[in-house]
Specification:
The structure holds 2 protein chains of 2 kinds. Chain A is of the alpha/beta class. Chain A is built from 11 helices and 9 strands. Chain A is globular. Chain B has a single domain, classed as hypothetical protein PF0899 fold, CATH 3.30.2320. Classes of the chains: A alpha/beta, B alpha+beta.
Chain lengths: ~250, ~140
């Protein structure tokens, strides 16, 4: 029987079998803090004993490792590849393979790279795996929706007029596709406008709160001790998803 | 040894295909191995023949044919078609290692020898492909 079949997709569910919850941290625009939120949320979770992983899916511009100050090379191999364990977080990033090289990938090629990493990475037992998504609503976002049943999204936005409309479009799409949403998180909030909260209400999505614009953040990047003193960490640490489940 | 994970995917995909076709025994599994990924063939073959099949009775007598497929690249801007020996990826260094794990990272290192572009398609020989399975018996045949 002729097949000509890419076998990788078949094992994705097996590789995720030990992961209790999958959350994609996404946003419809670049530069609104998805990577900072993903990495800092992972840190806040690890700090209270939640078994957490961080998978950087922004293949052309990975930056989660920068936020956490991870300077590591190739992952170890053991019947597949093992994420690096950093500050109590299981971290996987294409940056561990490509270093400082620019990686120009068209959408379908990024999809294939995603599938490869999903097929060969062993995450072990995790309470939560956070996916740091690339900006926009392109191939990678659609890929993870198709490949990872049960995936939820945490949508990051802010009240800027150049952002808010695209956040509304993203919400519209996720609601239409029946993608479960952890909620809408307002990042880099300035001023008192409630446009992001209003948007959450309009789409009946939980509003997770607002992280104020934090002037100290830039200097804290790469230094987890300093990161823990930022408003970003403080706000993320009090989210319901950052608390260990009762009984743990 | 991420060859094990790749071999695992081949076996599971073969079993699923056999199930879909009502095939009760798999006698032969034909796998294409793309040149670009440069997997360690011995490790891959060992995983297929000595580790994985014992987990399923349908694979007890299965033989594996591994066919190597040369990689070909096609440049998007100029249309030039070229092969592995035309690109300067250091097979023994970190570049080769990165491409071994994730063949798509060839886009970070390979350039069209004619125009220098990193924008190319890999038209064949990327990685592992389950080409064919041959087997016997089916639920339909017996009914």
């Amino acid at each position: 029987m002729s097949l000509e079949l890419d076998p990788r997709e078949v094992v994705v569910a097996d590789r995720m079998a030990g992961v209790s919850r999958l959350i994609g941290v996404t946003g419809s625009k670049g530069g609104i803090g998805k990577s900072v939120v993903s990495a800092t949320l992972a840190l806040a979770m690890a700090d209270v004993g939640i078994r957490v992983g961080l998978f950087d899916l922004d293949f052309t511009s990975p930056s989660g490792h920068v936020v956490l100050g991870v300077d590591r090379g190739f992952p170890d191999e053991e019947f597949g590849i093992e994420p690096h364990r950093v500050h109590g977080i299981e971290v996987m990033s294409v940056a561990f393979f490509s270093g400082d090289s620019a990686v120009p990938l068209r959408g379908q090629v990024a999809s294939s790279a995603l599938l490869e990493l999903l097929a060969i990475t062993h995450w072990g037992e995790l309470d939560v795996l956070l996916l740091d998504m690339p900006p926009g609503l392109g191939d990678t976002n659609l890929d993870v929706i198709n490949l990872l049943p049960g995936l939820e999204f945490l949508l990051v936005g802010n009240g800027s007029r150049v952002v808010i409309e695209s956040v509304a479009r993203a919400l519209q799409l996720f609601v239409e596709m029946n993608v479960p949403l952890v909620g809408l998180l307002e990042n880099m909030k300035r001023g008192i406008a409630d446009s992001v909260r209003d948007l959450a209400v309009r789409y009946a999505v939980p509003y997770l709160g607002a992280i104020p614009y934090d002037d100290t953040l830039e200097d804290a990047l790469g230094d987890v001790a300093a990161l823990r003193r930022t408003d970003v960490y403080r706000e993320l640490a009090v989210l319901p998803i950052s608390r260990p489940a009762v009984g743990e | 040894m991420h060859e094990f994970a790749l071999a695992d995917s081949v076996v599971k995909a073969a079993l699923r295909a056999a199930e879909d076709a009502g095939m009760e025994r798999i006698e032969r599994i034909v796998v294409k191995i793309g040149e670009l990924q440069a997997i360690e063939r011995d490790l891959f073959e060992f995983s297929l023949t000595n580790v994985l099949p014992v987990q399923d009775v349908r694979l007890e007598d299965a033989e594996f044919d591994l066919i190597e497929e040369k990689v070909r690249f096609r440049c998007r801007p100029c249309g030039h078609d070229y092969g592995r020996s035309d690109v300067a990826i250091d097979a023994a260094g970190d570049e080769g290692e990165a491409v071994h794990f994730i063949p798509e990272l060839s886009h970070a290192y390979a350039r069209c020898p004619k125009c220098g572009s990193p924008d190319f398609d890999i038209t064949q020989g990327r990685g592992i492909i389950l080409e064919r399975i041959v087997g016997q018996g089916s639920v339909e045949d017996e009914s």
